[in-house]
Fold these 2 entries.
Entry 1:
Amino acid sequence: MTSLVNPDNPVIERDVVVIGAGPAGLMAAHTLKKKGLSVAVLEARERVGGRTWNGKVKDAKGVEHFVELGGQWISPDQTRLIELVDELGLEAFSRYREGKSIYVSPDGTRHEYEGTVFPADEKTIAEMDRLIKIMDELAAEMDPANPWSHPRAKELDSISFRSWLEELSDDTEAIDNVSIYVASGMLTKPSYTFSTLQAVLMACSAGSFSNLVDEDFILDKRVVGGMQSVSLTLAKGLGDDVHLGTPVRELHWAEPDASTADELNNIKADVRNGVAGNGEAGNVTAISEKVTVKARFAVLAVPPNLYNRISFVPPMPRDQQIAHQHISMGLVIKVHAIYDTPFWREEGLSGTGFGGGRLVQEVYDNTNYGKNFAESTADKEDTYGTLVGFVSDVYAEEMWHLPAEERKERILDAMADYLGPKTKEPIAFYLSDMAAEEWTRGAYATSYDLGGLSRWGHLQNQPTGPIYYACSDIAAEGYQHVDGAVRQGEIAALAIAEQAAKA
Ligand SMILES: Cc1cc2nc3c(=O)[nH]c(=O)nc-3n(C[C@H](O)[C@H](O)[C@H](O)COP(=O)(O)OP(=O)(O)OC[C@H]3O[C@@H](n4cnc5c(N)ncnc54)[C@H](O)[C@@H]3O)c2cc1C
């Protein structure tokens, strides 16, 4: 069998090697360069942007339509991303939201409504308000950078969000509608698989639980030309320092501690208890498929579920080896359906639809605006209408196991529950499949298993020797979002610049 790594790799020397050219890695490299440090960014894919990805889908007439296959929306609290979009000379536009929204209740009844309060019965609305208030209070008590320090961290981390809501309420409709905002809507895992502490972190990171509930806040703006333009523009500024199509396979990062060798059991020296001076400069060698980089620091800017795709030499300390096993990707299908016109607008509808616990639990008007790389015009909205829908966790699993035609029919039928029979006749249809992408393996992001956040979370942002971690999955503000990714990239870069100045 041939090795994945070329033994004749060119070797380059830099201050910092950045692994991963998603928004976090590129922001780290951009910041490091501004601080006068040399960088090399090694990216597994043949493109930059990671979970942000400008794509296309063709209709039967051969017209190409622009679709954002990954992250796209920005909310007003995501201030670092908003500033960056501006710094890079990019523009943002607002999601279409005029007209009535649709709520489909558990019995399948369709309700049109305006504002953010569901047209559920009074008792359910009061119950939802009560649960949201409790979540808001817990989120207000939390520091998103230290959720494990919350006074009730252990208690809230040892109960699933679903069980906790069921302890608080016996109104299933209220529970379904409240849990959707964190479970299928954000972590894209069933609400019985993650803890209440993890749910509170999601809310706290977005400013409050009430913010999560408000789609006009959370899904406020998009970048003209697509969110991947942020990464494409950062990468352009980095030029030849970005190396594509070159997964990092090995990262040499420390000298084993001779005293740990156990000759009796034939165990070699290692760094099981960690190394002295975490965060300080060291000797790092990153071996990727096409290039080897020797550096003083590394930024690991990949989601934590992919850390173990790299062979660390020596193997990571015991704590990290364990901690990294408690964090996993969610699963969601982003559905793109294109129509000759945004027909729902003619019917006085915004295109927004919700239904907790349904196959497609959310739909929105996702009509494109401005110049992108499919058919489009600068400063104008597309004449074609686009709907985006989401099929989360257990439903996503079910859908991927169906034949393609049946899957499409089931999904469009479910979207038609909100916006009527015309929904079933898109001129183009596409499903984002990040779970099948080797260098992502799920969507939108990673989260801890039950109890994992309070036990292991404190390690996630601590450097290991000269290795710094940066990605949206371990962010405080902007957790799981592009904003969190760019914040993390910048934080890691500034910390490295400070250390580099000492060395
Ligand atoms: C379908 C979908 C919808 C989303 N919607 C939104 C949204 O509306 N708004 C929002 O803010 N966020 C959204 N997100 C989340 C957002 O896209 C991510 O939080 C963000 O992209 C994370 O950036 P990152 O740089 O931390 O990681 P990534 O974007 O995952 O980048 C990591 C990079 O590392 C590379 N890599 C991995 N392993 C290696 C290796 N061994 N060697 C070299 N390179 C490697 C990967 O190829 C990738 O390019 C969405 C995500 C998905 C999937």
Entry 2:
Amino acid sequence: MAQANSITLFDLQFASGCTTSPYVWRTKYALKHKGFDIDLVDGGFTDILARTGGRSDRLPVIVDGDRWVLDSFVIAEYLDETYPDRPLLFPHKPYKPAMGFIDAWIWNTVIGAWFDNYIADYHDLSRPDDQPYVRETRTRFVAAPTLEAAQAGREDRLPQMPARLNPLRKLLRETPWIGGDAPDYWDYSALAIFLWLASLATTPPLTDDDPMRDWLDRGFDLFDGLGRHPGLHSLFGLQLKPGDPEPFDRGGMGQAVTPKNVGPGAPVQPQ
Ligand SMILES: N[C@@H](CCC(=O)N[C@@H](CS)C(=O)NCC(=O)O)C(=O)O
């Protein structure tokens, strides 16, 4: 059990000391949500096994007293089960199906869309001793011979990406947080993906006027600015060229997915 209200978290950092892994980011938020101080173990990719005493080659990992817990989702469940009197990460039951959907959608939509466009930056921002490993492993994931070739031409691709997030924008017009009136693990998991993006977005992925900005700013400000590490880049400032698609749906932003049926005469949304 937690000693002096502190839980140890093994971090996965770039050379700036900024966390990059979305799984670690959401675990940081989860620990803070539960009211714990984080005893952070700094480090990068290639020292994970050594840092964790051979227990894991993936992060996050936490140590709570003498209890080691691996995997971000298992950690979140462990925290709610072990500390049910502290604010719950999963106040909505059952949470697993919706969590699985949110995770899959946002992972696919954000990481899937932006990964290649920042993949050479990802390498360059890594700790120097991690860079050969990052290059070797990440080259396997891209459909190009090198990370630099995969990233090349992103100026034309980046403007295509923001509109993919319209379902999330619509939801956030209806509610201050994905979790409702207060943030919970759904928000932290989604925010963590944008923090991953901010850790490597050397050129901005979203326009200044993106309607998600308010939720992102509020989320990054939580817990005394947990998401405001100086190594993070701004997500905003994407410049569009004539002919680029609309970055978000300006027309229907105030509406639910289909307008609420309030009886005859209600507005009809084209299908
Ligand atoms: N399902 C695991 C995934 C953990 C994972 O894959 N972490 C990545 C960082 S996002 C990692 O540790 N990568 C190490 C590497 O690439 O060598 C969790 O939720 O904790």
